[in-house]
Structures are given as structure tokens and as C-alpha cells.
Write a structure and sequence with these properties.
Residues 93-106 have a biased composition (Low complexity). By secondary structure, the chain is mainly α. The protein is built from 21 helices and 21 strands.
Length: 675
């Protein structure tokens, strides 16, 4: 007997099949009109962040110092690229939020005492350190900043509004030198540094907000096309494997730019970066040669700043792990470290081109701030001992005409070729002498004396004035002035001014005059180009002043040194011209360096429509945009008497002047002393 088959199920099954086919056809049509490659890539990156995996990529970095003026940051690979179109920038920033909060907290002129303030704040969520919780959402309109110490933020705002209040921030928050022996940290370690302008009179909101949008544009495109890579190639929308850190996924842009995100109040982006560092960042499996100098200033410097800002132990632990990977480079007969280190094998060496495989002054001389601070917050004196050894060698060695040549042999302890520069190969060594003194709370007199002596020798033998009155610092080779100044040397305007401002002496007036003069000269090098951006190096002579003459000197790779000096001179003088000059740089960057997918350097600043180099340098986010943002902020945001910036613009706290120094404790319970 045959079973009777109902027609209804057959009809139902057929209908379902028809719907499935229809949906599939529609899906194919939609896919053809959507660029899925970027979405898939981004989703894979975000998903991969939840799993810690080793990085077995072999890094091969091509160093071309001879063609790019002998400095790691000058590495640049020019390639032909194409443009795609995509732009998305529409995010609120904390500047607008803080203004609205200020008006809602308190009527103008009304004063509250500590008890009233605490009562008013009781309706807000109280936040602990970042490491305790990362799950809350940042509600900008209510200013409930994700994992910020909300109480601290609100008290800062109330104090700013209620100028008649006689109670200081420290009194209200009960901040003191008390420590928590159980956690071996000072009590301030439980609080995050509040990034807020205490007053608003000096803030240029319109210009500052523009710079925040620039940061968002740079970050979001890096996240979309190069997340976890070191840098972005904005024209070709991919990671830049030709950077100084090569092909390994070390997230240089993430670590370098993280404190800028934090300062700007971009909390969502900050969380993304913080989470990536916790889950993915490690040097354990990197078997390639990394620059000791660049790894220190970008990675250790960036991590230490975030530890000072947040008290999050993860940052301190990561910084210490990186420093430990660099320590084998110090194992030389003199203690002068090699330039390159393989983190996995511990093997180190110097560049073959560097004057008989010498170590480089600007590299081994630019470790003191980070290593000293690391000793203080970990309680391990080893890091300070390593850089103090370098200091003593440089202090005691004979210096030709009081000058420091750029090369020193780590085996013999003798100078290499007699090439002196306040630009590439020398620059940040001098910067760190002054800043080590500042970081110590002006207790490190040895560093200040070495700085003053070095600057007086440089003024005597290398600082010159052009026929038309431009002050410049020339390179000196074998007692012969080259009458050439690097863009890298433009930091010197700010350094001379900072030296003048922080100590009154017979050199004060001279230092300030030279600082202003050098800053003006660097500005001239910008405005004498068609793009109003400065060349990599510029010369002085009968043929030209403050202009590049060689094609290899005409490029601009988003460098920060000139705007760094604008920022410092603005803070010290409040001369409006420095803000105007900085804004001119912003407009030039937007016109010539902005692309649909980020920012790029240019190959010739003298061309009306210059070709782009297709590299968004990590220091553009870390330094250039940070200094521009601070230029248009109030002086109370990262004040120069509480913070000192490392050579990658990562602010480190000043000992004795900044409660966020967060020193570790010795066995006796006292904070570790700096030597």
C-alpha cells in the first residue's frame, strides 16, 4: 500500500527554498557594492585582540642613514601610491564637555567647602584605577569619563569655577605623601591624573578642536588599515613594514599615540589602545634588530607616561619588560650601550657606518629620563645605574673645545670622528642633560652643569648669525662649520628658552635670546617654502638663507621639532605670534599632508603640489599633534613645572613637584631616593 503524500508540505518546502535563493541573490548584489575587505580586516584585528599570541614575524629593517642624515627618525621610503576616498570625523571631545559641566556644577562666584563638594559628587560613579575596571561606557554629555577618577575631575572643575575657594586640590582630595605598604606604592597610585584645564581663559577652543579632529582622522585610519602594525601607509591603506621597527606587529603608533589620546579626552580610542597593549604587546618573540634609542623613547617613554597618568600597574610592568630586553646592549667594556639589540637572542651591535662601529651620542645619551624614572617606580636601582655609568664617562672624558663629538667607541671609550651637531646624531643628548635636572626637581646639579658648559661651547663654536640676522646652529665637522642646520635641531629654540626660564644666572638673557632667535629661524624655513612646511635641513650662505639646496634635504616627514619650540616659547612668553605660527602649520598640514586615509609626509616642500611619501609616522601622533594641542590649551594642562617631556613628547612627572610621580617604596617604607 502506498502512503498518501500531502501537498501542503511540498508547497511549504518549495516556498522556503525560493526565499533562500532570493535572499542569496540579494546578498550577492549587496556584496558587490560594498568594500568588504576593510570591514573583514578590521573585524579580524579586533577579534584577535582577545587572544594573546606570539609574533613569529622576522623583522628586516633597512637603515639608510647615509642618505637620510644619520638619524633613526629620518628613515623614509618613497613609493608611488594611489588615493582612495574615505573620511569619517565626527566625535565629541572633552573640551566641549568640560565647558558644559563647569556651567552646571556651580553658579558663578559660589563657593563650596570640601564636604559640600563630596556630597555633590556622591551622585556620580566613583572610579578606581584603570586596571580595576574597563567595562563602563564614557558618557561625554554627563562627563562620566570611562575609568577616570571622576571625583578628581569634578573637584578640578569646581576649583576652576570657584576661584574664591581657599582650599587647594590637594587639601580637598586629602593627597599627601602617605603610602600603602601593602601595595608598595604611594596612595596617589589609586587615582588617575585629571586631564583638565583648571582655567579656560587661555584656551583657543576652535583651533584646539580642529587638532582633535586631526588626531581622530589619523587614529581611526590607522585602526582601520594598520591596526597592530607599527605605522600606517595612508595612500595604499596598509601597514608600513619599512619603518624603523620593521615588519613585527609592535603597535608603535598605538603606544606612541596613547597619551595624546588620553590628553585629548578621546576615551574610547584610548581604551582600544590600552586593551591592545595589555593583550598583544610583547617583545618576547621578536627576533630582529631594534634600535635601543627608538625603543626607549617611544615604547618605554610612552608606557611610563601612561603609568604616571593612570597608576595602572600594567603599564609599569610592560615598561620594565621592554627595558629588561634592552639591558644586554649595555654589556660592553665601557658600559656605553650598542645601538641595536635583538630582543629574543640578546645579541647587540652598532651600525657599521657609524665611525668604526661607534655608538651614537644622541642614542646612548637619551636614556636617562626613562631609566631613572623606571628605577624610582620599580624600586630597582639597576636602570639608573646603567645610565649613571654613561653620565660619568661623558663627564670625565676629554672634550675637544668643550664639545661632544657624535661618535664614541664602546670598547675603547674614545671619540670617533670629530663631527659635532645639535641636530641629527647629537640633539637629544643635550636635551636630556637639562631635562634630567628638571626631572630630579633641580637636584641633579651635575646634569645642569654639564648642560650649561655644553651650551656655552656650542654658542661659542657653532651658533652663528646670517647676513640677514637669522640665528642658526651649524654642524661642525673637523673644525669646519657647514652652515647647515637640521630640522631636528629646531628643538633647541625651546631648550635654550627653558634653560633660561628655569635658572637665573649670567647666561639667562643669552640663552633666551638664542632660543627665540633659533625658533624664529625655523619659522623662516617654513614660510620660505611653497607649502609653508619646513625642509629636513636648510643652509645659510650667499646663495640662500634658511632654505634647502639639495634634493635630499627638501622633504618633510611630519616632524614636530619646530612646533615643539612654538609650544615652549608660548608657555614662557605668551607672545601670540607663537600660536599664530602654530596655526599656520596646522593649515599647511591639512592642505598638503592630509589624505583621505590619514596623513603623509611630502617629498619636496618647495613644490606647489608636492608628492606624498605614503607614511604616517608614529611621532606625528605622539609629538606633532600633542604639541599643537597643548599650544592652544591653558598653561594648567600639563604645566612645565610639574611635567618634563621626553624627546618623543611623552610627559614624565617632576620629582617633588608632582604628586603623580608614584615612587615605589624601599624596605623601610620610604620612597626610593634618586641619585
Amino acid at each position: 500500500m502506498c502512503m498518501k503524500i500531502s501537498k501542503t508540505p511540498v508547497f511549504l518546502i518549495g516556498s522556503i527554498c525560493f526565499v533562500i535563493v532570493l535572499v542569496a541573490l540579494c546578498g550577492i548584489t549587496l556584496i558587490n557594492n560594498i568594500n568588504l575587505s576593510n570591514i573583514i580586516r578590521l573585524n579580524e584585528k579586533v577579534a584577535s585582540d582577545s587572544v594573546m599570541s606570539g609574533n613569529d614575524n622576522q623583522m628586516h629593517t633597512e637603515y639608510d642613514y647615509v642618505n637620510h642624515h644619520h638619524h633613526p627618525k629620518n628613515i623614509n621610503r618613497f613609493e608611488q601610491s594611489t588615493l582612495n576616498i574615505n573620511d569619517s570625523n565626527n566625535f565629541k571631545t572633552s573640551t566641549t564637555t568640560s565647558r558644559s559641566l563647569t556651567s552646571s556644577l556651580s553658579p558663578a562666584g559660589e563657593t563650596r567647602n570640601a564636604a559640600q563638594i563630596r556630597h555633590e559628587m556622591s551622585s556620580f560613579n566613583s572610579a578606581s584605577s584603570y586596571g580595576d575596571s574597563v567595562s563602563k561606557n564614557w558618557q561625554a554629555d554627563k562627563y562620566l569619563a570611562n575609568d577616570r577618577n571622576v571625583n578628581t575631575l569634578l573637584v578640578q572643575e569646581v576649583i576652576a569655577v570657584n576661584s574664591s575657594s581657599s582650599q587647594s586640590l590637594n587639601q580637598i582630595l586629602n593627597i599627601s605623601n602617605n603610602v600603602d605598604p601593602l601595595n608598595n606604592v604611594s596612595m596617589i597610585g589609586l587615582q588617575r591624573y585629571p586631564i583638565i584645564d583648571k582655567t579656560i581663559s587661555m584656551i583657543d577652543y576652535t583651533r584646539r578642536d580642529r587638532i582633535v579632529k586631526m588626531m581622530e582622522h589619523a587614529w581611526h585610519n590607522y585602526k582601520l588599515y594598520a591596526w597592530g602594525k607599527n605605522e600606517l601607509r595612508p595612500l595604499t591603506q596598509r601597514g608600513h613594514i619599512g619603518s624603523i621597527f620593521g615588519a613585527s606587529d609592535l603597535g608603535a603608533t598605538i603606544i606612541d599615540g596613547l597619551d595624546t589620546l588620553y590628553i585629548m579626552g578621546l576615551e574610547t580610542e584610548y581604551k582600544e589602545g590600552r586593551d591592545w597593549i595589555e593583550r598583544k604587546f610583547t617583545l618576547d618573540n621578536v627576533s630582529a634588530e631594534l634600535s635601543v634609542f627608538e625603543t626607549n623613547i617611544r615604547f618605554i617613554g610612552g608606557l611610563l607616561t601612561m603609568y604616571a597618568f593612570t597608576g595602572d600597574a600594567m603599564y609599569k610592568e610592560k615598561a620594565q619588560q621592554v627595558a629588561d630586553k634592552l639591558l644586554p646592549a649595555f654589556q660592553t667594556p665601557t658600559g656605553i650601550p650598542h645601538s641595536l639589540i635583538n630582543p629574543k637572542t640578546g645579541m647587540s651591535k652598532n651600525y657599521g657606518w657609524a665611525s668604526g662601529s661607534s655608538s651614537i651620542l644622541s642614542e646612548f645619551g637619551t636614556l636617562h629620563l626613562e631609566f631613572s624614572y623606571l628605577s624610582d617606580i620599580t624600586g630597582n636601582p639597576l636602570y639608573r645605574e646603567r645610565v649613571q655609568t654613561i653620565r660619568q664617562i661623558l663627564k670625565e672624558i676629554e672634550k675637544p673645545k668643550g664639545l661632544y663629538p657624535n661618535f664614541l667607541n664602546p670598547k675603547t671609550g674614545k671619540w670617533g670622528q670629530l663631527h659635532m651637531s645639535l641636530g641629527a646624531l647629537g640633539d637629544s643628548f643635550y636635551e636630556y642633560l637639562l631635562k634630567a635636572w628638571l626631572q630630579s626637581g633641580q637636584a641633579d646639579e651635575e646634569a645642569r652643569q654639564m648642560f650649561d658648559d655644553a651650551m656655552l661651547a656650542i654658542i661659542s663654536h657653532m651658533v652663528r648669525t646670517s647676513r640677514n640676522g637669522l640665528t642658526y646652529v651649524s654642524d661642525l665637522k673637523f673644525e669646519r662649520l657647514e652652515h647647515k642646520m637640521d630640522h631636528l635641531a629646531c628643538f633647541a629654540g625651546g631648550i635654550f628658552a627653558l634653560a633660561a626660564n628655569t635658572r637665573q644666572s649670567e647666561n639667562t638673557e643669552k640663552f633666551m635670546e638664542i632660543g627665540k632667535g633659533i625658533t624664529n629661524t625655523c619659522h623662516e624655513s617654513y614660510i620660505r617654502s611653497s607649502t609653508r612646511l619646513g625642509p629636513e635641513a636648510f643652509r645659510f650662505g650667499e646663495a640662500a638663507e634658511a632654505r634647502a639646496l639639495k634634493s635630499s634635504e627638501k622633504y618633510y616627514i611630519l616632524r614636530p621639532e619646530t612646533v615643539e619650540s612654538y609650544f615652549v616659547l608660548w608657555r614662557l612668553t605668551h607672545d601670540q605670534k607663537y600660536r599664530d605660527w602654530g596655526w599656520d602649520v596646522v593649515l599647511a598640514l591639512e592642505k598638503h599632508c592630509r589624505t583621505t586615509h590619514g596623513y603623509s609626509g611630502i617629498k619636496n616642500v618647495y613644490q606647489e603640489v608636492p608628492q606624498k611619501d605614503d607614511v604616517q609616522q608614529s611621532f606625528f601622533l605622539a609629538e606633532t599633534l600633542k604639541y599643537l594641542y597643548l599650544l592652544f590649551s591653558d598653561d594648567s594642562l600639563l604645566p612645565l613645572d610639574e611635567w618634563v617631556f621626553n624627546t618623543e613628547a611623552h610627559p614624565l612627572p617632576i620629582k617633588g613637584a608632582n604628586v603623580y610621580y608614584r615612587p615605589a617604596l624601599s624596605v623601610s617604607g620610604d620612597a626610593t631616593n634618586a641619585s
